[in-house]
Design brief:
The protein is an all-alpha fold and about 210 residues long. About 85% of the residues lie in helices and about 0% in strands. The protein is elongated and about 60 Å long. One of its GO terms (molecular function) is monoatomic cation transmembrane transporter activity.
Length: about 210
């Protein structure tokens, strides 16, 4: 009887791992739909209000979508149990962080050069508030799944979701301060987001956990 129980434990662990992998894939697909709407609305509001931080936040949603696609790829078909697929996915997630930083810096420089000043935007406030509330739930769930699966790529995707929520909070603060005439807060927020993306990309490349 003890031998039977010992033999059953690895089988049960393998089944649990497969269940978690399927859940990670489903959460990534769910997030893709959310991010498509979030990105479209964020970019629309950002360009309309000349808010580089809001535009950057909307662009971040596209980057997060890349991470979601990578996780779906990672846990599909023959790649499900492939260590090499996990390594490739982890590094692709890191690159997706790095894509955002130069865009944000260039956008800040462009808007400052042309003298654009951010304007109030009800749509921007609404969509960032929704992200600030909802994204941490997805992010924490993915990070827990990633830890159980031993998947830095899944942890990295969850970190991007948490980063998105943090960015939403920063953008909301910037939008609020814009009403006081502190227009420069928007540009500072965008540059902070760029620096954070570079930092998190380095950690993802090395397979390190990120704590928020």
């Amino acid at each position: 009887m003890p031998d039977q129980r010992a033999a059953a434990r690895p089988a049960a662990a393998a089944e649990t791992w497969l269940r978690d992998a399927r859940l990670a894939r489903r959460l990534a697909l769910l997030t893709l739909g959310w991010l498509a709407a979030e990105s479209a609305l964020g970019l629309l509001a950002g360009f309309d209000a000349h808010s580089v931080a809001l535009v950057g936040w909307g662009a971040t949603a596209l980057v997060e979508g890349m991470a979601g696609l990578i996780v779906v790829w990672r846990f599909t078909g023959a790649r499900l149990r492939s260590p090499s697929a996990e390594r490739v996915a982890r590094r692709l997630v890191a690159v997706s962080f790095w894509v955002l930083a130069p865009y944000l810096v260039a956008h800040v420089a462009y808007d400052l050069h042309l003298g654009y000043r951010p304007e109030p935007t009800a749509l921007g406030i609404a969509v960032t508030t929704i992200s600030l509330v909802g994204m941490p739930l997805l992010g924490r769930a993915k990070r827990r799944l990633g830890a159980r699966l031993g998947s830095p790529a899944t942890v990295g995707e969850g970190t991007q979701n948490l980063l998105c929520a943090g960015m939403a909070g920063v953008v909301l603060l910037g939008l609020a301060l814009n009403t006081l005439g502190w227009w420069w807060v928007d540009a500072v927020a965008a540059l902070l987001l760029a620096g954070t993306a570079v930092h998190e990309g380095r950690r993802a490349w090395r397979g390190e956990s990120c704590h928020h």
